[in-house]
Amino acid sequence: MNLDIKFMSYRRLATIGSLALLILSIGSLSFKGLNLGLDFSGGTLIEVSYDDAADLSEIRDLMFNNGFDDFQVVNFGSNSDVLIKVADKDGNSQLGDVIYKFLQKADSSTELKRIEFVGPQIGSELRDQGGLGMLVALGMILLYVAFRFQYKFALGAVAALAHDVVIILGLFSILSWDFDLTVLAALLAVIGYSLNDTIVVSDRMRENFRGERGFEPEEIVNRSINQTLARTLITSLTTLLVLFALFIFGGDMIRGFSQALIIGVLIGTYSSIYVVANMLLGLSITQDDLAIPEPEGAEFDDMP
Amino acid sequence: MNRFSIWTYVFILSVLSIGIIYSLPNLYPAKPAIQIAYTDSGKSADQQLLIQVRDILDNKDIGTESVGLKENNIVAKFNSLDDQLAGKAALQRALLDQAIVALNLEPSTPQWLRDIGGGPLKLGLDLSGGVHFLLEVDIDSALDNRLESLLNEYRKKFRDDRINVESSRKDNKDLLFSFSSDEDYTKALKIFTQDNVTPLGTSLFDLRPNALRNLVELSYSQSAIKEIRDYAVGQNLMTLRNRVNELGVSEPIVQRQGSSRIVVQLPGVQDTTAAKKIIGKTANLEFRLEAASTSSRLRKEEFDFQDERMGSAFLEKNIIVAGERVTNANSGFDESGFAQVNITLDMQGGRAMQKATNGNIGRRLGVLFVEQKNKSVLKKDSNGEDVIEQSSYIEKKIISLATVQAVLGTNFRITGVGSPQEASELALLLRAGALAAPMKFVEERTVGPSLGKENIELGVRSIIIGLLSVIAFMLFYYRWFGLAANIALFANVVLITGFMSLLGATLTLPGIAGIVLTIGMAVDANVLIFSRIREELKAGKEPQTAIQEGFSRAFVTIVDANVTTLIASIILYAIGTGPVKGFAITLSIGILTSMFTAILGTRAIINIMYGNKNLKELRV
């Protein structure tokens, strides 16, 4: 394959697209917020299964009659599985048992699948830890890339990662998907994955910048992206293959996880092509930025 | 030409065989088993119980694979689930309350694998089913108790030393003393300063004297607070372990997490209400005066001694203090070198003890150990079949009966307790009856057994489907090189399983997701190398040179890309809990093994395939 797609001619378009997505995401995140899962919101969750299709309205009535008012009852996976979420500010760890008791009393075929209780304190701790972890990860990566490449690349890589993370978060907010610990794990995996991509592309740019002289930066960037394109697409494809396997066959408990990763891989692939390159050109990278510093006294060594 | 030295092959093969050997135990299915332990947690299973178990099972003609001693338990393995259930019923009926009989799954790892430390992967609760609790130890209230009793101690000391205290009170985390005169102040300050040294040489208090106003403010120092916290958590941990043992769960986990939290994991337990009741119970001790021989039957009760040789004694019905008031108990020696047990009560307990012992010097004070126990009886049900009926009852036994020598307060001691070993056993019992600080449940996760099994099936299915689709794609796209990459990929999965089993890491559902993700990403290194080889070929290089260049040029990129992913997964490990930690572990191990298989492994295979040939043409 001798690819020569003029990626950089579409720079403006990509910038506008990215900015639009970012503004949309940030807007939704600040006005609508994330639909925090149990791990972060605290509360009680109980999953039960019935022999036949469950009657959700009957379960809702049962909940009302037993004095609950702030709760959600939804099907989970199949129509015989039911998930009940109770927002509970006081951190009462007994609620799950209480609910399961009266559900079983109403219908003896009720089978308990899981109860999860997360105290309010743990929830807020996990929120803080998660946010902090994300920032630490970005910071460490910034340092590593700056050390291995150059600060302009590091800025590009971190911009790409932030871009990916914000857009995934935005999508979770817009679509009101549950954001729980496994999604946070997926987000960190996306950081790892997207970075992987970014580094491969950057690596090639570095090589080409150091190579022949006399080319425009835009031309070099374009050539680098074309040279790595086949690899970028194949890796994304194999990763997407396994992620779809996970999404379809992995069950409901890790559906959020695979959703986040699938979106992450798609956006990560895009960002490693456009965001990094855009940043580099925006920071007006030159061949001199990447020139290998000549060791002192090297020129004298050649003398006899 | 592209050849590895023989030593490189030896290295690759030895890493691979370690991986294969240690992943082998996962191929042997777990056998249904029963674990039997004496109800009395102080007693470990012995030969006698072993013979008893064998006889019971033989009498009922229940086939077993093996019956043997394992640590403090007897483990009987069965060939079928039916045998296991029949065995449990028979054993429960015969042993009743003598022993705890718990269902269990025992790995059937062959002996030679166990000898080299092999064992199957540990499953997280989301895969095995069970309960996870996170309890928070309330350190503030432990500190409050300590401060209250400290305040009382000093009040008493100043009274005894005739130091005039104008006022003394506890204010939040500080104690405030003000003295009537300079002289009192100086004397008191001397006492404080003397007390303010621990055996380790650190200071116990932060003292803030104010000579102008004859005022002393004191609070516990950071190191003292840390010590109090460690003591309270350690104490609660021990108490919890004892209580969890009562549940008869196989392989429970009771661990400290962070500075003041305790994790309890009970695989296989379904009845969380019962588990919580046992874990959360308090007050297992009662202090009562010995009843006078003249007192009426209505006001006294007869109790047996824990030590059967001692018989029984009458104690008053009135309880002076219960176990939750005990903040500390340890054994030591008195002035003449005899063993004694030192007890510390909280302020309220000390006041009650003082009131009760005032005017009762010379009488004997008894300590009762209270335990909730289960009693099982065989009964005939309406169909005339034997069923076991369980009822719980409370057993109280005297663990100490000693003469009161003086009016007691928050601190007192029991002497005449026998040998030092007996003294430390008594202290242990006293502590076991009490929690050093109250605890509350801050997190709870229960996973039903059906969900656990479902999760394993779904996880394994997605690994297989993911692996097959990647293998098919690589074969289709890269042909022979793809085959090499596929062999490496397969080796990678074996290595991940092997190393996780070897390290004793726990596999969780997100952990399985991590393996799946690794499969997708592991081929990346190969894709990088192969694309590079293609480019080199296109640039007109000789096939062998292209292979050589392709590997060496892609190497730096692969390392850079993987190190950064490793950074992300290490951070994930640091911030994550339970299942997410499982994901981080598999991802990290997967990154390391995939670098090994994709770079060294694939190269070795390609060297074997092409290395010695004189290639005119190469298709990648």
Q: What would you say this structure looks like, in words?
A:
With 304 residues, chain A is an alpha+beta fold. Chain A folds into two domains: 9-36 and 122-290, Multidrug efflux transporter AcrB transmembrane fold (Up-down Bundle); 43-118, Alpha-Beta Plaits. Helices cover 64% and strands 11% of the residues of chain A. Chain A has helices at residues 11-31, 38-41, 56-65, 95-106, 120-148, 151-174, 181-210, 217-249, 255-273, 275-282, 298-301, and strands at 35-36, 43-49, 71-76, 78-86, 111-118, 178-179. In chain A, the strands form two sheets. A four-stranded antiparallel β-sheet of chain A has the order 3-4-2-5. A two-stranded parallel sheet of chain A has the order 1-6. In chain A, a hairpin with a 1-residue loop joins strand 3 and strand 4. In chain A, helix 5 packs parallel to helix 7 and helix 7 (181-210) runs parallel beside helix 9. The longest helix of chain A has 33 residues, at 217-249. Chain A is elongated. With 620 residues, chain B is α+β, with helices and mostly antiparallel strands. Helices cover 48% and strands 25% of the residues of chain B. Chain B is built from 15 helices and 23 strands. In chain B, the strands form six sheets. Chain B has a six-stranded mixed β-sheet with strand order 15-14-20-19-13-16. In chain B, a hairpin with a 3-residue loop joins strand 11 (253-257) and strand 12 (261-267). In chain B, helix 13 (509-538) runs parallel beside helix 15 (578-610) and helix 14 (543-575) packs antiparallel against helix 15. The longest helix of chain B has 55 residues, at 449-503. The mean pLDDT of chain B is 83. Chains A and B meet through strand 5, helix 5, helix 7, helix 8 and helix 9 of A and helix 9, strand 22, helix 12, helix 13 and helix 14 of B. Strand 5 (111-118) of chain A pairs antiparallel with strand 22 of chain B, so a sheet runs across the interface. Chain A: Pfam families: Sec_GG, SecD_SecF_C. Chain A: Residues 101-282 form the Protein export membrane protein SecD/SecF C-terminal domain. Chain A: One of its GO terms (biological process) is intracellular protein transmembrane transport. Chain A: This is Protein-export membrane protein SecF. Chain A: GO terms for molecular function: protein-transporting ATPase activity.
